[in-house]
Design a protein that fits this description.
EC number: 1.1.1.-
Protein name: D-glycerate dehydrogenase
CATH architecture of the largest domain: 3-Layer(aba) Sandwich
Helix content: 25-40%
CATH topology of the largest domain: Rossmann fold
GO molecular function, one term: oxidoreductase activity
Radius of gyration: 21 Å
Bound molecules: (2R)-2,3-dihydroxypropanoic acid
Mean pLDDT: 97
Largest sheet: 7 strands, parallel
Structural class: alpha/beta
Strand content: 5-15%
Distance between the termini: 30 Å
CATH superfamily of the largest domain: NAD(P)-binding Rossmann-like Domain
Number of helices: 13
Family: Belongs to the D-isomer specific 2-hydroxyacid dehydrogenase family.
Keywords: Oxidoreductase
Shape: globular
Length: 323
């Protein structure tokens, strides 16, 4: 029997997924979950025709040029700003991502993070655990209402729409959104969503949730100038990517009381977090876990595996980015 094609699974994933891949491929996996430097990644990709990767691996033109045998790069994430797709396409390398399977789980989390931020849940929990709770007080951890407020969404893709649905149908929120393209009327209608320009979105939102993919065009889409246009009582939640929000400008805006609070699941330079964000009490910080339910992470891994198997066995990858 001919040798199986060799693939790299760059991070630790479900053993069942490794077993499935091993039926088709000679798999080099990473059970220690070592985070590879670019040089280590290049070294481990030698001789591999496929790569199952996550957002911690960067695939760029230089790496591709050193690995001309590589045919498929399958990301276990919906976002793929870690991959130079144009460079892959130019070299005939298929790129895939994992849309849809994580939409509802990620929208759940975005909504939860926004609520935790507005209602000061983690801040008040820390206070209680520190043994500082000695009385009821009329203004203790008084936050901002979510029900009936204006929910602003920057980036109205599948996840943005999921958050909008939760806000409109579950909490009676007024939904305003800004996106490159407007939703068709039959999608705006049921959630009463209103397309607005970015300035209006910033000015009107009580709770602004950022869900736009990261690219050169969205780098620092929320910076000092944008934060200055927001209400001083507003909250900002980022579940998109670090880099869409200028974290230094956000820390400054929070310090100066230009907005009330922030909920952040993603960071510029993560897993590093800006020290001034870490130091602020009115910021809810989570370690990039918006899609992390057990079922959804398994569905993402399965879909990335489906893509890799199809790409390398003559099938049609279900969610190719550059088919
Ligand atoms: C995604 O899918 O892009 C998430 O950020 C990874 O969890």
């Amino acid at each position: 029997m001919a040798d199986k094609p060799a693939v790299l699974v760059a991070r630790k994933v479900f053993p069942e997924v490794i077993e499935r891949l091993a039926q088709h491929f000679d798999v080099e996996d990473n059970p220690e979950d070592h985070i590879h430097t670019p040089a280590e990644l290049a070294q481990r990709l030698q001789g591999k025709v496929g790569a199952f990767i996550t957002l911690s691996e960067r695939i760029d033109a230089a790496l591709l040029d050193a690995q001309p045998q590589l045919r498929a790069v399958c990301n276990m994430a919906v976002g793929y700003n870690n991959i130079d797709v144009a460079a892959c396409t130019a070299r005939g390398v298929l790129v895939s991502n994992t849309p849809d399977v994580l939409t509802e789980t990620t929208a759940d989390f975005g909504f939860a993070l926004m609520m935790a931020t507005a209602r000061r849940i983690t801040e008040s929990e820390r206070f209680l655990r520190e043994g500082r709770w000695d009385r009821w007080a009329y203004d203790m951890f008084a936050g901002t209402d979510v029900h009936g407020a204006t929910l602003g969404i920057l980036g109205m893709g599948r996840i943005g729409q999921g958050i909008a649905r939760r806000g409109a149908l579950g909490f009676g929120m007024k939904v305003a959104y800004h996106n490159r393209s407007r939703l068709p009327a039959d999608q705006e209608g049921p959630i009463n969503a209103r397309w607005v320009d970015k300035e209006t979105l910033l000015r009107e939102s009580d709770h602004l949730v950022v869900v736009v993919p990261y690219s050169a065009a969205t780098h620092h889409a929320i910076g000092a100038a944008e934060l200055a246009q927001m209400k001083p009582t507003a909250t900002l939640t980022n579940i998109a990517r670090g880099g869409v929000v200028d974290d230094a400008a956000l820390a400054q805006a929070l310090a100066e009381g230009r907005i009330a609070a922030a909920g952040l699941d993603v960071f510029e330079g993560e897993p590093q977090v800006h020290p001034e964000l870490l130091a602020r009490r009115n910021v809810v910080l989570t370690p990039h876990i918006a899609s992390a339910s057990v079922a959804t992470r398994r569905a993402m891994a399965d879909l990335a595996a489906d893509n890799l198997i199809a790409a390398l066995t003559g099938g049609t990858p279900p969610t190719a980015v550059n088919p």
